[in-house]
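Researcher: Let's run the pair from yesterday's discussion. Sequence first, then tokens, for each.
Model: Starting with the first of the pair.
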Amino acid sequence: MGVVTVGPARATASGAAPAPQPQCVSAPPAAVTYSVTQAPVATNPRLVDLTFDSTAVDSYMETTYKRPPHVYVLEPSDYNTAPTGTKWPVIYLLHGHGGSYQDWVNPTAGNVQAIIDNSALAGRAFVVMPDGGYDGFYSDWLGLDADGHNGSGASGATEPLWQQFHMDEVMPWIDSHFPVATGPADTAIAGLSMGGFGAMSYAALYPGTFGWAGEFSGAVDSDVYWPVGSSVEGEAVNLPDGKAPDNCIWGDPVVDHAVWEEHDPTALAADLGATENQGIKLYLASGNGAPDTNPQPGEPAWSPGAAGIEQGVYQENYNFDRALVAAGITPSVVDFYPYGTHDWFYWRNDLAGFLSLLGRSSFPSP
């Protein structure tokens, strides 16, 4: 078992410093294989449940969720009546920290089916919603915490490879088993909070894959106030749920800073303007934590906890937007509204706005 990152040595009473103890450990990589079981969802005839048996993330999922990873696929509204051979556009929707593949479908959370059916797309697209882990951050992890709370390097288990799971397993499987068009003009990705990070990180790391990328209250600058901010963020993100912090996603913010920047959308902003990404349309949305002086029907009561998170998220969004502008990239939509907290009420509105962008532009529909 290889040591990836070590903590500082602590002096003993005699003044001798013991050997550093490993903070992050990495098991020898196993051959990554996967298989998929497909089943309909009894409560929704348009919903398909994919269960993946994937060595890329199985160890983490069994430790954290006690189940294998799933992917929900929402079929187009007129899928069963369309002419044979119809190819459909596809939207990948990513969940946030602590969430799961079910979040966007849940009527009291994402409510995606009602939103897309009532959008300009009129439901005429596949929507793919994969598991991304409790704290997965849409990345191939550098290692696992040595205390074993998020998985063990023993018995051949390894740290989760979320990037590989989504980009090398889920997307190719969707392309080969559903009638989706596969060009960037036909492929969109979006997500909330941690999922907003994933959407922009994947769009930058895989140029030419997505023609549209949206983030709603996205954690799009993991390096904010580096190195103190990065360290605090890792500690604080799991506090509301009483979970131990996952410190080995990208390793130590100082020692492994290059690994952090390899995934950070703000550090990768220029890559969104790469030749292969020419024409990509970006949608940025965030509140700033302030109360809404003219609340909308159904808007949640102002909460200091959700407001504090959104204040930090707004700073990350501002930094990301500035980095894009510095790289000569103009997002299609920047919706930084002067109120709003970290809540599904706003993310549903953001999704509707993103779908409006798709509908009034050249996102195809059969």
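Model: Moving on to the second of the pair.
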Amino acid sequence: MKKKLSPEVLEIVKDLQAECIGGSKDGKDICKKCMGECKMLNEYAECPKDLFDHVLREGEIDQKIPYSCNMCKACTLVCPKQLDLREAFLGMREDLAENNQGKSPIKGHGGIDMHQKLSFSKTFNTTKKHSHNVKRVFMPGCSLPSYSPDLVKAITTYLSEEVEGLSTVLKCCGKPTALMGQKSLFEQRYQSLQEEFDRVEAEEVIVACQNCYNVVKRHSPKQKVTSLWTLLDEIGIPKEAKGIGADSDLIFAIHDSCPTRDEAEIHESVRNIVKELGYQTEELQYSKDKTRCCGMGGMLGAADFELAKRIMTSRAKEATSENMLVYCASCRDAMTIGGKKTLHLLDLIFGGGYDSKRQISTAIANPLKNWSNRYRSKKIIQKVD
């Protein structure tokens, strides 16, 4: 279904169309570097310039197109002019939501909308002080608690013992709301998270989720934001985990999360931790600052799951090893769907040793199980002293 766009968004598209040097001349491609990087663009156009021409001519766009962007900025990385298509597509999403009574027009986003309502409800949120003099807040995010309450227990307990003045806040950062184009609702929801930070007088927020890292860093200027991985690199992993993978016959390909593509310190900390664990690793061709999206970015799966699955499979195939290591629970689901035996970094730290004799689960939890895990994580956090 096609929808009209606002003059403000059309102006952004006009600027992109004028700057883009893509297309062909005399039968030869001038520049289509982004087309070689983005499967989504190839679904809808020969070149983004052609797509922009159509949008400007018609003043509207098929609503599925902006909601199919992975928001990973891979196109910008290879663009000679570093054109930011992500911001243009996000602006279109905000337009479409505003013209749809503040809700995303994508049918598949109904479940995500409910996810966000529950994620900000008292049923699945909690704040627990582990110390009287709180200076730092640990924020496990949404995906990790939904994936493994046991890992939430292990890392929360470890941090409460090793980090002075700690509190834990189990609450969503609201990024899915923002990605659906619900800008004002995102601001309201994020304010409720900020109020929790301020209520415990936190000076620093430690985040386990890479999406949360970017969102909190952008929207909580009063607090210092620290990645869990750089913190663990600094304070060290539990002594019982050191060298646990030294005799393992497994090789783990490291998948870097695209939200923290520009965070070299996080990339190095992750590798330092894996080295301390003792496991062998494989570096993908597209890693660190050149990493590619796992297929979960931008919530593409809700708009076009088949396209998302092709991206997940393509990314997974870049690894020669059958085992993938991630430090984002959403990436874990994506790489598992893509065909890899995938573990979260916390699995390696707190899950005991892994070798070829130990089976790695390829199960993807259903929504009911995810919410059950999320609730268990809440109860676990409340009991950590």
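Researcher: Give me one sentence on the second I can quote.
Model: The chain has 18 helices and 13 strands.
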